[in-house]
Design brief:
By secondary structure, the chain is an alpha/beta fold. It has nine helices and nine strands. The longest helix is centred in the last third of the chain and has 21 residues.
Length: about 280
Amino acid sequence: MAAAGPLTRLSVVIPAHNEAGCIAATVEGLHAELERHGIPHEIVVVDDCSADGSWEILLELAARLTQLVPVRRTPPSGFGRAVVAGLDAFTGDAVVTMMGDASDDPADVVRYWEKLNEGWECVFGSRFVRGSSVSDYPKFKLRINRLANWLIRQLFRIRLNDTTNAFKGYRREVIEGCRPFLSPHFNLTIELPLKAIVRGYSWTVVPVSWRSRRVGKSNLRLKEMGSRYFFIMTYCWLEKYFSRGDYLRVEAAPGDVDHGEAGEASRAAGAAPRARD
């Protein structure tokens, strides 16, 4: 894989809806880890119509933490809307999206940054590969998760086994190349990576650590999300197999990142490049 241009600043986008009990610890822990590794960064936290004092906590943090960029949304709320607001606001040349409930490990953000600097355009974290760890995942949600990810793997013929994980990293050009975003809710977690894969951006997978939230309650409602996931999955599948490559990324100039093992023939046919774990 040919090297892409060097990255100079990392943005981390964190949506937060009623996360007063943990958002300060999430931001401070992430900032400390990035500082420790000397990574220039900003942390964009999007308060998604919280009613528990999350916004006031963010303002207090921002007064002493210059890397924090608080963004406040007005109704209607929605995980996808909050993430997109952060993607509209970030200023770095790479971005990581992560949860505000301290379930994701800041050390993995450093690994994402390193992989992106190797030239990969997308880095996808998996909680279900060798080297990963998962703590206290609710059993019913875990079964649904594995079924949904198995279905995505079969439909898109990809090896990524944790597409639904919100914790991912992208170079800026991927975000711009995947617009417009259609998902107002948690279905954005699959819209972004599937569009990136279908449109020909290079990607790799790294093992990540995940633990169930210790404070507050999850905002994901499985009963409400089934049809939304199905809609966006179908949309991306139709693009992959019926768009005739109309949405593929512009071919890289000499010296830019290569798309890996799949090669020129598969890109011309509209197939996504294969990635390595």
